[in-house]
Design a protein that fits this description.
207 residues
Length: 207
């Protein structure tokens, strides 16, 4: 569901109530970004698997999987997405799980006034730009072909290495395991024909 046209970014709303999703689309119809909606977790995963998403807003209480668990999984697979909760079933336990497990950017409660929702989504896009800027800046040493050969996750890992972070710090910043970081580094070694993390960092910065 939603509008998949080109825009300045993409926000995805996930809820089990179609009427609410339609209301959210209406509220943000004049926004400069594309608004996508998914009725439930599985359709949301389908959307995430086929196109980039910048901001993700999920309900907490949904059939099959709560929003906190869903966002925690998203954080592990798509760490660059800014994650928020919009729920009518607020609880301290859910908030703690969302904040600690999924590192949510905002925890909003229903009903959310239109202006408050627009402001929260706008701030989420600003956060997305802020967190992605270092990665883009510190990949300046790569050629266009080299950059295209890397997956989005590999670019994120390389950007963190270029900033001087070590494996444990990269893992913490990207919300993935150190083992996963090392696997991405091995792939970067192979694709860029380099042999050390220091070489990766220098290549990314162009020094």
């Amino acid at each position: 569901m939603g509008m998949e046209q080109s825009a300045s970014g993409v926000v995805l709303f996930v809820d089990d109530e179609l009427e609410l999703l339609e209301g959210l689309e209406q509220t943000l119809r004049k926004s400069p970004y594309s608004v996508l909606t998914a009725v439930g977790v599985q359709p949301a995963f389908d959307i995430l698997s086929r196109q980039p998403v910048d901001v993700l807003v999920s309900d907490e209480k949904m059939p099959g999987m709560c929003g906190s668990e869903f966002l925690t999984r998203v954080a592990g697979t798509f760490p660059g997405i800014v994650r928020m909760v919009l729920t009518g079933h607020a609880s301290v336990e859910a908030a703690i799980m969302a904040i600690n497990g999924a590192s949510v950017f905002r925890y909003l409660t229903k009903p959310c006034l239109p202006d408050a929702l627009r402001r929260a989504v706008d701030e989420a896009f600003e956060e997305r730009k802020r967190t992605q800027a270092p990665c883009r800046t510190h990949l300046a040493g790569l050629t266009g072909a080299e950059r295209r050969s890397l997956s989005p996750r590999e670019q994120e890992v390389l950007g963190e290495l270029a900033l001087g972070y070590r494996v444990p710090e990269v893992a913490k910043r990207l919300f993935i395991s150190p083992h996963t970081v090392r696997n991405h580094i091995k792939s970067l070694f192979r694709k860029l024909e380099l042999h050390s993390q220091a070489e990766l960092a220098r290549r990314a910065r162009g020094v």
